[in-house]
Amino acid sequence: METYGWGRFPKTDAEITAPRDAAALQAWVRETDGRAGHAIVRGAGRSYGDSALAPQILSSRYLDHFCEFDDEGRLRCSGGVTLGHILDNFVPRGWFLPVIPGTRFVTVGGAIASDIHGKNHHLDGCFGNFVESFQLLLATGDILTCSREENTEIFRATCGGMGLTGIVLEAVLRLRAVNSSAIRQQTFQAQNLDGVFGLFDANPDSTYSVAWLDCMARGDALGRSLLFLGEHASATEDGGGPAQKRDRQSGASRSVTVPFTTPAFLLNKFSMSLFNACYFKLAANRKDKLLDYAEYFFPLDRFLHWNRLYGRNGFLQYQFVIPQGQAREGIGAVLKEVTEQGKGSFLSVLKKLGEHNDHYLSFPLEGYTLALDFKYEKSLPRLLDRLDRIVLSHGGRLYLAKDARMSKDTFRQGYPKWEKFIAVKRQVDPDCRFASLQARRLGLCPDAL
Amino acid sequence: MQRVLIAGAVSAIAKEVARLYASDGAQLFLVGRDSAKLKHLADDLTIRGASGVGFSTADLTHFAEHDSILEEARTFLDEIDIALICHGSLPDQQACEKSFKLTQQEININGLSVISLLTLLSRIFASQGKGTIAVITSVAGDRGRRSNYVYGSAKAMVSTYLQGLRGSLLPFNVHVVDIRPGFVDTPMTAGMKKGPLWVSPQRIARIIIKAVSRRKHTVYAPFFWRYIMFVVRIIPEFLFKRLKL
To answer: Which member of A188, B74, B179, B238 has the greatest number of CB atoms within 10 A?
Structure first.
C-alpha cells in the first residue's frame, strides 16, 4: 500500500507487517528470506521523510507494553510504546519524561533511533542520554542487550542510528520526578535575529526554551521571534499535587482533526504572512502564564493530521544545526536565502542546543538549530541544495529524522562519525537486511547495495 | 473498585479494555492460552494502575476446565462485577467448507466455548444478585454471508443465546451486553485489506467500557454498523444470495 512519512513526501509502495509481539517479530526476522535493503522497522511513522520507508515495513505497533517500573523512576517498556502513553500514565503519579519532543505521538523505539532532543537539550541532552539499556533484535534474529557498558559500540550506533542496527524490543528509561504537570511559561518578543540570540544567551539556565520565528519577516525584522521559556511549576502554583486525573488525556481531549487533504495553494505567502504577523502581535501581550504541559510541549498535537494542510504533494521539514561560533551568521544567511526566494515556512522553530553526545549519528551539536517547513513544489529541491551548501560551509548538518532528500556527500560532511557507524552496521547486519530508502540514499549500506 | 474477569484477555480488543479498567484501579482476572503473554500483560496492567491482576492459562475449547477456571477467578476477585468474554478466532471460510472437522473446531471456539462459559457464569452472577456479563460477538452474526458464514453462524448463535439470557437474568439484577464490532484492525485481521470502515481496538475498547457502564443491550461498534447491518438485513434473499459479500 502507499506509505509515507509525516511529511507525506516521498511516497512509496510498501508491505506493512505488524507482528503481534516480540516473539512473532523475532520469528519473522528469522524465517523470512532476507533480501538486502528490503526491510525497516517503523514506529508511529512520525519521522518526516523516508527513514521509515522500505519495500517491507515492520511495524512495532503491538510492542506496546509497560514491563517494569521502580520507585527511582526507572521504566522498562516495549519499543512501540508512545511517549504520549508514558506521559498519560506517569504524569499523574509525578513522573515526567526527561526529554520531550514536539509531539506525543512518537514511539520509544523511534525516539532512540532518532536520538531526539527537546526544549531542554541545552541542559539535559538527548533522549538517548536517559536510556540505560535496550534489547535489540538484530537482522540475524538474535537479541542483544546494549548499554553504555555492554555492547557499547552498538549502543552508540543505535541511538540516532535510524533503526538500521536492529529493532528496539524493550528499553529501560529514566523518568524524572516533578511536583506538577503544569509549566510556567514566559514569553519574550525579539524584533530580529540578533534579539533572539541575545535572549537565548541571557537565559542559559531556563529549563525549557524554544523560539518561534516569523520566517516571512524581512530586512531589519529578519528573524523576528517569540521566545518561550518554561519551568515546571511548583505544586502550590498548580493548585494541588501532580496526581490529578484531569491530566490523563491532556492534549488528546481538545483536539481537532484536519479531515482531508486541503489544496496546497491555501498555504501561500499571503496566508502565511498574515498568520505569522498576527501570531507575533497577539502573543506579545501574554507574557507570563501557567500552561498544562501538553499545551506547552505539544501545541500542534491539537490538530490531528495537520500534515494534510500542505496538500497532496506533502512538505519537507528542513532542520539543521550550526555550531555556536558560526550560528548567527549561518542562520542569517539561510533565512536571507529563503526570504529572497519568496519561499515561506509556515512554522519555523529556533532552538539553542547543548553539547553533542558520543552517539555516532546523533544530530545535536552545541549551537543553534532551525527547523523550517516547506510545502513540496518543483523549485524546492534547488533551494534546499543551496541551503545545504550554506549549512555545510558553516560547519553544520541536517537532522536525519526530518530528511528526505540530502545527498550522500552532504551527509558524510555533516556526520564525521559515519565510518564508525558503518563499521557497526557491518558487524550487526552484514547483509544489510535492514535498510530504509534513506539509508540507501545516504550510502549506509555500502557493501550490499 | 471494579472486579473484572476477562476471557481471551490477550486479544487486541480485550487488552485495550483491560488497560482502561486498569487505569481506573480495577482488579482484574485474565484468562488466555499463553502464560508468558498473560504475565506480560499482567505486568503492563499493574503498572497502569490495576489494584490487582491474576491470571490463568487455559484453552477455552476444553469445556471441562471452565468450572475450575471460574472458581479460580472467584477466589481471586471474590465477587465478579464484570465478566467480559473476548476470545475467538477468524476461520478460513474456504478451508471450513472442505472440512467439517475444521468447521466444528471454529464453532467450538467462537460459539460453544462461549456458551459453556455463559452457562456457568449465569449461575455465579445469579447467586451474586448483581453484575454485568458482556460478550464480543460480531456484525457477521447479523446475516449469513457466503464469504464468512461459519464465523457468522457461531457469532449468531451467541447473540441469540445472549438475548434469551438477558431475560432470564433480569430477575437477578444481572445485565447482559452483546457487543458487535465491525472491522477492527487487530492481529486477527492482519491478512485483510483495510479501508475507511476499519477502526482501532482502542476505539472499540472505549465503546465497550461505555456500553457496560450504561447497561446497553446490543451495541454496534462503532455505531454506524447498526445502520450498515440494517441495510444488509433488509436486502431480499433472492438478491442477497447473489451478492459476493
So the answer is: B179
